[in-house]
Amino acid sequence: MRRPVARNLTVLAVSAAVVASVGATAPPAAQSPGGEKTPLAVGYGGAVSSVDPDASAAGIEVLRKGGNAVDAAVATAAALGVTEPYSAGIGGGGYFVYYDARSRTVRTIDGRETAPSSADEDLFVENGKPVPFAEAVSSGLSVGTPGTPATWQAALDRWGSKRLASVLKPAERLARDGFTVDETFRAQTASNEARFRYFPDTAELFLPGGRLPAVGSTFKNPDLARTYAELARKGVGELYHGRLGREIVETVNEPPVDPASGWNARPGDLTVQDLAGYRTRLQAPSRTSYRGLGVYSMAPSSSGGTTVGEALNILERTDLSKADRATYLHRYIEASRIAFADRGRWVGDPAFEDVPTKELLSQRFADSRACLIKDDAVLTSPVAPGDPRDPKSCDTGGTAAPTTYEGDSTTHLTVADKWGNVVSYTLTIEQTGGSGITVPGRGFILNNELTDFSFAPANPAVHDPNLPGPGKRPRSSMSPTIVLDRHDRPVVALGSPGGATIITTVLQTLTGFLDRGLPLVDAIAAPRASQRNAAQTELEPGLDGDVKRQLEAIGHSFKANPEIGAATGVQRLPGGKWLAAAETVRRGGGSAMVVRPAR
Q1: CA-to-CA distance for 463 and 469, rounded, in angstroms?
Q2: What DSSP state is assigned to residue 3?
Q3: How confident is the prediction for the chain on average, in pLDDT?
Q4: Cβ contacts of residue 91 below 8 Å, gap of 6+?
Q5: Bridge-partner residues for 476, per DSSP?
Q6: pTM of the full predicted structure?
C-alpha cells in the first residue's frame, strides 16, 4: 500500500482543520474480513487498529452490529488472546484508557496484575542473592493474579453497550476455527521453543505434533474456545471465584514441568483468596498540557503517563517543528533520559508508595530538569533524579540508579466508534511467551508480570518504590494515550508494546505527529531511538546514517536494536471520519480497519 507523503504542519494548529489536512492525503483502505494486513484505513462508522487483522476484524464486527468503542475494544482484545497468545490473554493484565464523547472526559482502568498476599521484598531472593532473571521468568514465582478478565467486565459494566458473552463470540469462533500462521507467530514460537518444551501442556498446544507451526497453516485452539465459552456463560467470576481460578492456582503453585527437562520451575504462592480479592482500579488519568493540547494516559501503577508527560513538558520550551533532524532527536533523547531517571526514583504502586504524580507532571519541575540539556553535549547516564516536591534548577545532586529490565512483549489496540468514543488499551502477559506455563486444558499462557518488580534495590542507598509487596502491582511502562484539543475533542489516540521502550515509542510518535507534521501512519513507521537513562541509546537501522554521525559527534553512543515497539493509533477527522493507522513493517505490519470506507 502506498503511504502518504509526509507534510509539515504548523504546531499551533493541531485542531480539526489541521487534522483534515493530514487526512486529505490518505487513501481509503479496502476492507477484508481478516487475514490481510493494511496499515492505513480512512472512513466512517468507527475504526480499529491492532497488530493483527483477525483481531481488528473482530472489533469491526462488533461496531457493525451497533456496539460502541468499549465493546469493540474487548472483542479485539479477546481475539488478540487467540492470535497473539505470547503477548496477551486472560492470563495477564493491562491498562484501559477511555474517552467518553458525551461528557468529553477521559477515564481509566488499572487492570495490572498483583503479587500474592504472601509476597515481600525478598520474593526473588534466594540464599541472599537475586534469582537469575532468565530462571525467574519461566516459573510460578513470576505469576501475578490476572487482571484482564476483570478489566473487560469493568469496562463493559461502566461504558459498554453489549454483554461479555456477545463480544466474546468473534474470539471464541476464531479460536475454534483457527487462524493462519504468519512469519511473526512462527518466529515467536521458535524463540520460545526450548522453554515451551519444559511444560508439556504448552508444548502440546503451541508445538503441534512436536514441531513448530508452519507458515500458512491453520492454528486452532479449541481449549481456549471452550474457556471463552465458559466465561461467556458464567462470567469472569469463574476465574476469580470458580473452578478456573482454582486451576490457575494449582498450576502456579505446582508448575506442570516435564521432569526430564531438568528445569527448576520454581513454584509460586498464589491462593484462591488472592484471586477472589482482586479488584481493578477505576482512577483518574495522568494529564499534561502540550502545545495547548491535553495529553491523557495512565497514572501509576504505570509509569507511562508520568514519564511521557514529564518528557513532553521538558520539550515544551523547544520548537521541535523548526529543529533539524539531529537537533530534534538530541532533544528527544535527552528528555527521555531525564524522565527515566525520575521515573526510577519516584514511581511505584501508589497503594504502597507515596508517588508525587502531580509534581512529576508539573511544568515547574520539567523546567528545572530541562536546563540540564545542552545542544553541544550529552548527559552522562545514569542521570541522577530530581526532587519534584522541591525542584531545584539544574540539580545534579541526587543518587542515580539504572533502569531495570522489562520484557518487550505486550500488545496495543486503539478503537473509535461513530459516536466519537475512543479506547486506547495496552494489555500484556509480560515477556514474549509470558511465563511459558499453560493452564492445562485451558488454552492460555500465564503471565510472568512479577518480574517487572525490582529483584533487589536498584540502588541500595535510595528507597526503591518498585520492590515486591503483598498485593502490590509491579511498575509498568504501558502508555495508552489519548490527546484532546482545546474543546476536549479527540485529536489522536495511540499506544505500543515494547517493555520500557513503550514510553519512548509513544513519546517519539507523539512528537513526530504533533511537532514534526508527520501523518500518523508515517509517525508510527518512522525509525526509532530509545534512551532509558542508560549509557547507550538503542537505535533502529533507519537512523544508522548521517544523523547518527552528527549525534555521535556531540557525544551520543548507540547500540543497534532491529525493532522497537509496534504502535497503533486512530485519528479524528472532520465530519465523523476516522483514520486508523498501524505499523507498516514492525511485527510483520499491523492492521487498520474502518467500518465503512465511504459514507
Answers
A1: 14
A2: P
A3: 93
A4: 146, 148, 248, 429, 434, 439, 444, 445, 446, 447
A5: 302
A6: 0.94
Active site residue 410: yes
Question: Is the Cβ–Cβ distance between 449 and 109 less than 8 Å?
Answer: no
Task: Report the alpha-carbon distance of residue 531 to residue 281 in Å, rounded.
Answer: 30
Collapse the DSSP code of 8 into the 3-class scheme (helix H, G, I; strand E, B; otherwise coil) and give the result: coil
The angle that helices 304-315 and 325-346 make with each other, rounded to 10 degrees, is 140
Q: Which residue has the cell 508494546?
A: 497
**Which of the following is catalytic: 410, 428, 504, 537?**
410
Name the pairing type of β-strands 537-539 and 558-560: parallel
Pair 565, 502: CB distance under 8 Å: yes
Q: Reduced to 3 states, what is the DSSP secondary structure of residue 114? A: strand
Rounded CA gap, 53 and 498, in Å? 20
| Residue-wise DSSP of 381-429 | SSPPP--TTS--TT---S---PPPP--S--EEEEEEETTS-EEEEEEE-
Show the domains of the chain with their CATH numbers.
11-282+405-564+574-596 (3.60.20.40)
Amino acid at 278: Y
Q: Which residues of 307-334 are buried (b: 16+ CB within 10 A; e: fewer)?
A: bbbbbbbbbbebebbebeebbbbbbbbb
Contact 500, 430 (CB under 8 A): no
Residue in this structure with the C-alpha cell 526510577, named with its chain if needed: 344
d(CA 275, CA 430): 19
531-554 burial code (b ≥16 CB/10 A, e <16): bbbbeebbbbeebeeebbebbeee
Element (DSSP H or E) covering residue 342: helix 325-346
Q: Is pLDDT at 396 greater than 80 in this prediction?
A: no
Give the pLDDT confidence score for residue 452 in this predicted structure.
Answer: 96
The string over 236-269, giving b where at least 16 C-beta atoms fall within 10 Å of a residue's C-beta and e elsewhere, is: bebbbebebbebbbebbeebbbeeeeebebbebb
Show the CA angle centred on residue 453, arms to residues 449 and 459, nearest 5°. Answer: 160
When computed from its CA atoms, the radius of gyration of the chain, rounded to whole angstroms, is: 22
CA angle 120, 139, 346 (to 5 degrees): 40
Give the model confidence (pLDDT) of 136-191 as tens digits. Answer: 999 999 999 999 999 999 999 999 999 999 999 999 999 999 999 999 999 999 99
H helices of 163-217, where?
164-167, 169-177, 183-196, 200-206
463 vs 440: which has the higher pLDDT: 440
Peptide bond before 200: cis, by omega within 30 degrees of 0? no
pLDDT of 372 > 60? The answer is yes
Report residue 235 as a C-alpha cell. 462470567
If you count them, how many residues does the chain have? Answer: 599
Cell output for 314: 521538558
- Cα 504 to Cα 511, 562, 584: the distances in Å are 10, 15, 19
Tens of pLDDT along 102-148? 999 999 999 999 999 999 999 999 999 999 999 999 999 999 999 99
Sheet holding 537-539, edge to edge: 529-530, 537-539, 558-560
Does the pLDDT value for residue 17 go beyond 60?
Answer: no
Q: What are phi and psi of 469, to 5 degrees?
A: -165, 165
Q: Which three cell numbers stand for residue 398?
A: 541526587
First vs last C-alpha separation in the chain? 22
